[in-house]
Q: What sequence folds into this?
């Protein structure tokens, strides 16, 4: 039964919608946590430590954070896999170009695939930079996320990579939220305007919230 659902286009779109909403919820929480950097190093480092102690003593140190990471990895893989397979299926169904041009889609719609690739590459870089410290620009300091963030955004390439990725994220959310709502049956003629407005507001707030951190470092507000 599960295999039949997955093999259908509706099933893949549902997987994309659900996994996308899981990642969106994480992004909202993650952005709020990131903004704590404006309250100073002690507050931000305390927040970083708290993330590893959530659920104690029932959960061992760091287990809740690893559980969240596992859920996110599953969501990202499911989202990317279903998107890729739907894209391949769409290409096979239309092997030749249309004789007449279709109406011009929105910029976000036309860049969803490229935006997804950019975000996928960014996630790899972001983890290697601020989680493992593998490609970190300065001396990575375990347990001192404030200094690690400042180090990253004190470089032109760290800022460039992050800001470009966050702009791609905003476009992805703008189209993806509305698309997910349609897939899950929340859309209707009377609700479409509200859903599109919600998508635009979410995209704007998340983009602005995430970009505020590198801008804060560049302007010296965070140092």
A:
């Amino acid at each position: 039964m599960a295999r039949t659902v997955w093999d259908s286009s509706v099933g893949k779109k549902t997987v994309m919608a659900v996994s996308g909403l899981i990642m969106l919820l994480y992004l909202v929480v993650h952005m709020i946590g990131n903004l704590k950097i404006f309250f100073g190093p002690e507050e931000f480092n305390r927040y970083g430590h708290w993330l590893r102690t959530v659920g104690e003593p029932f959960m061992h140190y760091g287990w809740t954070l690893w559980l969240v990471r596992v859920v996110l990895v599953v969501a990202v893989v499911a989202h990317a896999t279903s998107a890729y397979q739907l894209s391949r299926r769409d290409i096979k169904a239309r092997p030749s170009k249309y004789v007449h041009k279709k109406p011009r889609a929105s910029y976000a719609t036309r860049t969803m695939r490229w935006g997804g690739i950019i975000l996928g590459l960014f996630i790899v870089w972001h983890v290697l930079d601020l989680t493992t410290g593998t490609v970190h620009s300065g001396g990575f300091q375990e347990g001192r996320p404030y200094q690690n963030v400042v180090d990253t955004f004190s470089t032109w390439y760290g800022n460039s990579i992050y800001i470009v990725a966050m702009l791609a994220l905003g476009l992805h959310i703008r189209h993806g939220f509305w698309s997910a709502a349609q897939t899950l049956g929340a859309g209707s003629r009377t609700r479409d305007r509200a859903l599109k407005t919600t998508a635009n507001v979410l995209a704007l707030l998340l983009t602005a919230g995430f970009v505020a951190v590198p801008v804060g470092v560049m302007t010296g507000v965070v140092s």
Residues 177 and 199 are 6 Å apart (CA to CA). The radius of gyration is 20 Å.
